[in-house]
């Protein structure tokens, strides 16, 4: 069974080789009867068009998604005369929205996997944006005004993103997905049921901070907090420049690490730096260096995966230990 949500607001049902038909918006149970159906979006369908298509059942799905459906639809529907992008200088232009599936893998003990799955959504930038030393292609719209994304095309990514960060080469635990090993699965696709994708993955996430008014207030509060951090940094920089001639000048109260921690980017930047150092070290070794593989206690396939930048399963400390072993190996080879 499959439903296709169309741009004209109709929802088409295909079932057991029967003739295609459209759900009756006057039937309060029509969409409730196909909650587990595979869901497809007509190409170009926007968030505004999607919400208007399911409006006849808004009471049921608003409650299921913990959402004030009418308030959000009113906010989003007011954008129908605006362009896809926004002229707000603080918001980078976006190209489309994407609903995606995430599979989290936990390994409480050897030979034991625990899987959990959830749907979420984010926006894609028209042009990748540099932020805190990294290049970002996607962003959250949690605190953006509705005009920034209401008329963007919305798509479903049926290929799941697998978070398997507890798999460590050095501990002998292999990642679930190994793209560089021939004959093994390189991705996992999950069924996109309407309730999981639209109700939980979209409606519940849009209204995570409450109504449009609540979301706007939280956004303003966050902006004020960030502005306070910027003000402190500018004040400390000015004070530092005025007294830089003093050798015993006290350090600034606010450091770059403080800012990263405030924004939740500390681990992200440390991980990025560790991955870059590991990549640079690996440039100097061959893909089939059996001696190095032995020192790392991994197979040659594992070494090939490291050379291919497959490091998501390694912790920051594991990447640093691996980098140090590689550097020692290179130094010993140069001295031989």
Strand content: 15-25%
Portion in helices: 25-40%
Helix and strand composition category: alpha/beta
Strand ordering within the main sheet = 3-2-1-4
What is the global morphology?
globular
Describe this structure in words.
A hairpin with a 6-residue loop joins strand 2 and strand 3. 38% of the residues lie in helices and 20% in strands. The chain is globular. It has ten helices and eight strands. It is of the alpha/beta class and 336 residues long.
Helix and strand arrangement:
Blueprint lengths: L1 E4 L5 E4 L6 E2 L15 E4 L5 H7 L4 H7 L4 H9 L16 E16 L2 E20 L2 E6 L14 E10 L30 H13 L5 H31 L13 H8 L2 H17 L7 H7 L3 H8 L8 H20 L1
Any key phrases for this structure?
336 residues; alpha/beta; four-stranded mixed sheet; globular
Summarize the structure in short:
The chain is of the alpha/beta class and 336 residues long.
């Amino acid at each position: 069974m499959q439903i296709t949500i169309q741009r004209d607001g109709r929802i088409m049902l295909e079932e057991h080789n029967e003739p295609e038909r459209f759900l009756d918006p006057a039937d309060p149970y029509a969409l409730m009867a196909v909650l587990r159906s595979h869901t497809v979006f007509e190409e170009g369908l926007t968030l505004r068009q999607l919400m208007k298509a399911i409006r006849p059942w808004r009471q049921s799905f608003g409650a299921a998604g913990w959402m004030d459906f009418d308030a959000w639809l009113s906010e989003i529907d007011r954008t129908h005369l605006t362009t896809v992008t926004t002229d707000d200088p603080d918001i980078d232009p976006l190209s489309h929205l994407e609903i995606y599936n995430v599979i989290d893998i936990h390994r409480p003990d050897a030979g034991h996997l625990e899987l959990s799955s959830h749907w979420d959504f984010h926006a894609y930038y028209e042009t990748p944006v540099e932020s805190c030393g990294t290049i970002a292609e996607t962003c959250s719209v949690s605190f953006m005004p509705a005009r920034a994304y209401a008329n963007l095309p919305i798509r479903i990514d049926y290929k799941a993103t697998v978070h398997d960060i507890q798999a460590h080469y050095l501990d002998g635990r292999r990642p679930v997905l190994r793209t560089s090993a021939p004959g093994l699965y390189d991705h996992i696709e999950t069924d996109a049921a309407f309730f999981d994708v639209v109700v939980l993955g979209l409606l519940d996430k849009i209204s995570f901070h409450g109504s449009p008014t609540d979301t706007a207030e939280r956004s303003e509060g966050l902006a004020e907090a960030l502005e306070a951090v910027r003000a402190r940094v500018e004040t400390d920089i000015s004070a530092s420049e005025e007294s830089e001639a003093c050798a015993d000048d006290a350090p600034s109260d606010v450091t770059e690490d403080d800012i990263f921690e405030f924004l939740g980017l500390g681990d992200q930047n440390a991980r990025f730096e560790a991955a870059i150092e590991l990549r640079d070290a690996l440039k100097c070794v061959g893909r089939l260096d059996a001696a190095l593989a032995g020192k790392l206690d991994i197979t040659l396939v594992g070494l090939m995966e490291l050379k291919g930048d497959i490091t998501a399963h390694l912790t920051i400390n594991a990447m640093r230990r691996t980098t140090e072993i590689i550097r020692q190996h290179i130094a010993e080879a140069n001295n031989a």
